[in-house]
Amino acid sequence: MHSMRIVAGAAVALALLSAPLGASAAQTTDISGIVSQLTARMDAVSSYKAHIKLAVRLHSFPFLAADLDGTTSYSRPGHYTVTFDQLPSLASAFQKVSGDIGDPAEWTSKYAIAVEPESASTTPNTLTLRLTEKVQGQIDHALAFVDLTSHTVTRMEWYYVNGGRIAMEQHFAPIDGVLLVDSQAADIDMPGYKATAQAVFDGYDVQVSMSPTQRTSLR
Fold first, then answer.
1. CB neighbourhood size of 118 (10 A)
2. Residue 204: pLDDT band with limits 50, 70, 90
3. Total of domains in the chain
4. In this structure, is residue 118 part of a structural domain?
5. Which three-class secondary structure state does DSSP give residue 211?
6. 3-state DSSP call for residue 214?
7. Per-residue confidence at 145, pLDDT binned at 50, 70, 90?
8. Residue 108's pLDDT band (boundaries 50, 70, 90)?
9. Residue 1 lies in a domain
10. What are the distances in angstroms from CA 154 to CA 12, 21, 23, 30, 206?
């Protein structure tokens, strides 16, 4: 699956998620199936490259802004990279967020995963997973919002132990018969920092390995 990627200088300290959460055997079975579906969605893609246009704005002192161009790439199984032509501090954590969201195949080895109870604001046909890393870090937990129809992660939220929060939404579009990210938007609210970020992905070069019938079924 790919990169879901947005952040600003406020999030430079993006780190490992903290202590493990328990889960019942039933939850583990369900979660395993969900993660498998997220991973299987990219089975037909052997690799891709795309152009990224990233705009980051700090809404607190020193009110900096950056507009950057870069490249994202994927190669099976689950290897994602994000590089920019220039890499100021405003965008340095973008690469960390990209990896965290982009590879559900790695979630079970890195995180304790549980199903988050539904709330009144839960989007229909969406399941929320709570991710807590197995090595203590600066993040208390993260929430991954999974669309059960498209098998995509449409939103991610990181909650820091210092009270900070980063929320990111991403939109998908069918490209060469596969749903790939075409835009992302993030809101960053950290102690002493507030920022927003917008990313647009285009110019995809996708290498697929499936029959025409399979590709049609994914449109």
1. 11
2. very high
3. 1
4. yes
5. coil
6. helix
7. very high
8. confident
9. no
10. 23, 23, 23, 19, 21
Q: What angle do CA 21, 27, 28 make, to 5 degrees?
A: 75
Is 166 domain-assigned?
yes
Is a pLDDT exceeding 90 seen at residue 56?
no
The SS3 assignment for 33 reads helix
Whether 2 maps to a domain, the answer reads: no
**95-108: burial string, b at 16+ Cβ within 10 Å, e else:** bbbbbbbbbbbebe
CATH number at residue 91: 2.50.20.10
Query: Could you give the CA distance from residue 98 to residue 52 in angstroms, rounded to a whole number?
Result: 12
Q: Report the DSSP beta bridge partners of residue 212.
A: none
Residue 136 structural domain: 9-217
Triad 5, 7, 148: Cα angle to 5°: 40
